[in-house]
Write a structure and sequence with these properties.
about 950 residues; mainly beta; about 35% strand; about 10% helix; five-stranded mixed β-sheet; single chain
Length: about 950
């Protein structure tokens, strides 16, 4: 029968222990017990929880069905082979389940059956007894051996019934039985020399089993004295693993007889166990008991050695003693570590306390030699947790980070408490599996990408890159552009990105003149769960390319040709015109140079390559220049690579005077309408001007005499600049001091009528600033003051301004006009043009011709688009006038464009719009306004 019972359940709910028993010699498949049912486990979940046995505890004799938890006999069990003479024979089996981890210890007791009869070492046992032996003398008999244990072991001995002997059965300290033959009746060798009996050994099994041997008793002649031991029982101790030859005990027996009857021989008793003879040896002559084999405490902690002493006399009777040897345990076994289960990998987000492995530690030694301390070597995020007895689990002891360590080698060291201590170690390797805990990171937060304009659509422009310390899908990065608007259009119409490698491509050809830069966000996203991402800013900067040729915007003319007059009396350096061009490019691509390509073979003109000013290089000579026209081809070239250029055609016409050149048609029409002779009008006008000038000189002399005490000369007259101008001129020439540009300052005059506007332009710029104010110019030393008043803004040709500057520079310094003098020229031109040129002067000024105001007209375009610089109306003696502004004719005046271009052509419809021109030109500075001139109007 199979006995199934549960002995023990413990271990705080983590592990339990059950116990079964099964008789030995059972056939294969014999049912032992159902572990799952006895432990109260759900049989349906055994497979999912990986129900299994610990490898180190597996036995070939027993097997567990992992599907239903049934424990059965796998191989026939021989208890005597497994446990020998041990009273209890146990087999151990450990089983466990995962998720969560549960460990169970199963003990299987192998129950002995009476399958072995007692047996004697020899079939014949001979005992020699002296006939002189007295009644009661005992003779130990050789013991029988029964490998069974318990009730099935040897129980008693029996002998054939007789009248001379009986058996006395004794029990040893270890429970073994042995028999002694006791003399019950005196022997008489002469009557019977040999006695034969059947000796039977009987066990306690059911049914009983017996073993027999033939007992032969030989009756000998008497030997009166037998040997005697000092003690009947000797108790000694010895460490295990003592080397061969180690003395166990020196025995000593004495015999009162002499001769051979007193000479003693020592030997083991007949009933001693065979293993004793293998481990020990006794010297027959000396009685020295020595070690002859390997004494192991783990095999047996105590040995009982029976020794007999027998003399050499006839009919010798042996004496017996027992040596009780206690084996002292030595720390000769290091702990043994056995891993039952190991998790190959653990997630880096595993919570502390996650089980990684299950192990057991054993030590064959006893006492402190068998007490074990376990630990994990090194600084690793794992720790040992004791389960029960010598079982441990390895669990996590902190957060794991695969990016810092992707695997750990866990070394467990087991050390006993013996002296010296013994230790053993065993290592396992655990991989840390990746989790998506790191977002992609760009190599830089902001990328500046420079793209040259006119790029090929679809061309590669840059590559952004992001890194992710994770692995696998968690590190697979895809790139995308975040939606935004650029100039009202989606960013996806401008650039695209390769989602796999972050390569950026331009989807259109960029134009620097339309778009100089734009920005967008790039996102890098991994493929983990959940997805993580990061962003970076990309600044695309369009680099200018020289793709626009210069555009000539002034001077304008008909049929692509501008006509400019040149007076025959012009001095070298006379400003004929100024070429104004613009280039929408930037930097060096927009820096322009001007040059004359054709029409200047005789070197009549020179061109300032920086400002575009076309000036005369010499005086006009009728002999050298017999023709009336100069057809000049002006080239404007930028400094780009390669350079682009445009040309403008300028026809310079020689005229007697500027006014004649511009007003010939008007003069001829007036001549038809008015029959009055022009020469007569000039004579009358000159006479009137001379008279008025004489009166003005007298008044000026009186006023200047009064102001001399203050050492300052200021024109305060509100009607005309004649007096002030002539006075200041004479005072300046009287002091014989030549003025320089640094001696001149701009003084704001009093307010004039709202219709009068004086444009002022900062030096070096094209922008204009209009205010309803007038300005006078005075020296630092306040020697003279010049003021100019503009009564009516009129549109005149820019060459008129330039000629006015030339005339101013020719002032003779005398009071009257002379031939070739600026005063004289100005007067003549004044009569030729009527009131248009000298509309700002009084009749007295016209008659005398001495007022600087008369030959320094101001100009404000009627449409307010462009204004002349105040320096165009200023003359400093001894210095050339360099005008900074040009006058642009409207389409009504010209009716056609005045330039041709090479390369990209820009269309200009009529006059340049004010907002376009202001975008090209910087603002001007407001002129200085002295406080003492702000209350009165200064001309």
């Amino acid at each position: 029968m199979i006995v199934l019972f549960v002995l023990l359940c413990f271990l705080d709910g983590v592990a339990s222990q059950i116990r079964y028993s099964v008789p030995e010699e059972q056939d294969h498949g014999t049912f032992v017990g159902n572990i799952a049912e006895d432990l109260g486990l759900d049989i349906t979940k055994l497979s999912s929880r990986r129900f299994q046995t610990v490898p180190s505890s597996r036995s070939p004799y027993l097997e567990v069905n992992l599907e239903n938890g049934v424990l059965f006999v796998n191989e026939q069990i021989d208890r005597e082979l497994i446990c020998k003479q041990s009273a209890t024979c146990l087999l151990h089996l450990e089983v466990f389940l995962e998720n969560p981890l549960e460990l169970f210890r199963v003990e299987i007791e192998i129950v002995d059956i009476n399958d072995n009869p007692p047996g004697f070492p020899e079939t014949d046992i001979t005992v020699e007894i002296s006939e002189s032996a007295t009644i009661g003398t005992r003779f130990p008999l050789e013991s029988a051996f029964d490998p069974d244990v318990g009730t099935n072991a040897l129980r008693t001995y029996e002998i054939t019934t007789n009248s001379y002997f009986y058996l006395d059965v004794q029990t040893q300290g270890d429970g073994n039985k042995f028999a002694e033959l006791v003399l019950e009746k005196p022997l008489d060798r002469e009557q019977q020399a040999v006695h034969r009996y059947v000796l039977t050994a009987v066990d306690g099994g059911l049914p009983q089993r017996t073993g027999t041997a033939l007992l032969v008793v030989k009756v000998l002649d008497s030997n009166d004295n037998v040997p005697v031991f000092d003690q009947s029982v000797y108790t000694v101790s010895m460490p295990e693993n003592s080397p061969v030859g180690t003395l166990v005990i020196q025995l000593n027996a004495t015999d009162m007889d002499e001769g051979q009857n007193g000479e003693i021989l020592y030997s083991f008793s007949n009933h001693i166990a065979p293993r004793i003879k293998e481990l020990f040896n006794i010297d027959a002559r000396t009685g020295r008991l020595e070690v002859s084999g390997e004494v192991d405490y783990e095999e047996s902690s105590m040995y009982q050695i029976y020794v007999q002493a027998k003399d050499l006399g006839p009919n010798a009777v042996p004496a017996h003693c027992k040596v009780l040897l206690k084996v002292i345990d030595v720390n000769d076994n290091a702990p043994e570590i056995s891993f039952s289960t190991v998790t190959e990998s653990v997630s880096e987000k595993a919570a502390p306390g996650t089980v990684i492995a299950l192990l057991s530690v054993t030590d064959k030694d006893s006492g402190e030699n068998g007490q074990i301390h376990c630990e994990i070597l090194g600084d690793v995020p794992f720790k040992l947790k004791s389960s029960f007895r010598n079982y441990y689990t390895i669990v996590t002891d902190g957060p794991l980070d695969r990016e810092n360590a992707d695997s750990y080698t866990i070394t467990v060291v087991a050390r006993d408490k013996g002296i010296p201590s013994l230790a053993s170690s065993k290592s396992i390797k655990v991989q840390v599996s990746d989790e998506n805990d790191n977002a992609p990171t760009f190599t830089q937060p902001i990328y500046d990408v420079y793209v040259t304009e006119n790029n090929v659509p679809g061309a590669y422009i840059y590559a952004v890159s992001a890194l992710d310390p994770d692995i696998g899908q968690n590190a697979y990065i895809s790139y995308s552009i975040m939606e935004c608007a650029i100039q009202g259009m989606s960013v996806s119409t401008y650039v695209s990105i390769n989602s796999e490698n972050g390569y950026l491509y331009a989807l259109r050809s960029f134009d620097y003149e339309q778009l100089k830069d734009f920005s967008f966000m790039v996102q890098a996203k991994d493929s983990g769960d959940p997805e993580l991402w990061s962003n970076a800013t990309v600044n695309v900067i369009i680099v200018d390319q020289n793709d626009n040729p210069p555009s000539v915007i002034a001077p304008l003319g008909k049929n692509g040709t501008a006509k400019q007059p040149l007076p025959r009396s012009a001095e070298p350096g006379y400003l004929v015109t100024r070429i104004v061009a613009m280039d929408p490019d930037d930097g060096e691509n927009a820096r322009l140079s001007y040059s004359i390509q054709k029409g200047n073979e005789n070197g009549m003109f020179r061109m300032d390559w920086r400002t575009g000013e076309l000036r005369t290089a010499r005086r006009v000579s009728t002999k050298r220049d017999p023709h009336q026209l100069y057809d000049l081809l002006i080239e404007v070239r930028d400094h780009g690579q390669p350079p682009l250029s445009s040309t403008a055609s300028v026809i310079v016409m020689l005229v007697d005077s500027i006014v004649e050149g511009h007003s010939g048609d008007r003069g001829s029409s007036k001549a038809k309408e008015n029959s009055l002779d022009l020469t007569l009008i000039l004579i009358i006008a000159l006479g009137s001007v001379s008279f008025i000038f004489l009166l003005a000189m007298i008044v000026l002399a009186i006023r200047c005499q009064k102001d001399k005490k203050l050492n300052i000369y200021t024109c305060l007259a509100s009607d005309c600049c004649l007096c002030c101008s002539s006075c200041c001129s004479r005072q300046a020439r009287a002091r014989k001091k030549k003025l320089s540009k640094s001696d001149i300052m701009l003084v704001q005059s009093a307010n004039v009528t709202s219709s009068a506007q004086v444009p002022v332009e900062e030096s070096g710029s094209f922008g204009s600033h209009h205010q309803n104010q007038n300005y006078c110019y005075q020296t630092k030393h306040q020697r003279a003051e010049l003021s100019y008043l503009v009564d009516r803004p009129r549109r005149v040709n820019s060459s008129a301004f330039q000629e006015a500057d030339i005339v101013s520079s020719k002032d003779s310094g005398h009071g009257d006009s002379e031939q070739g003098d600026s005063d004289h020229d100005a007067t003549n031109r004044g009569h030729s043009s009527g009131a248009d040129l000298f509309s700002n002067c009084t009749e007295e000024c016209k008659a005398l011709g001495h007022s600087d105001r008369c030959w320094m007209p101001s100009f404000v375009p009627s449409d307010g688009r462009q204004a002349a610089d105040y320096r165009s109306n200023l003359h400093v003696p001894g210095m050339d006038s360099v005008p900074d502004t040009e006058v642009f004719e409207t389409p009504e005046q010209t009716g056609d464009r005045s330039f041709s271009t090479f390369g990209k052509e820009k269309s200009h419809h009529g006059t340049l719009e004010r907002k376009e021109f202001d975008a090209l030109l910087p603002s001007t500075r407001a002129p200085y306004k002295p406080p003492y001139l702000s209350r009165k109007r200064i001309c």
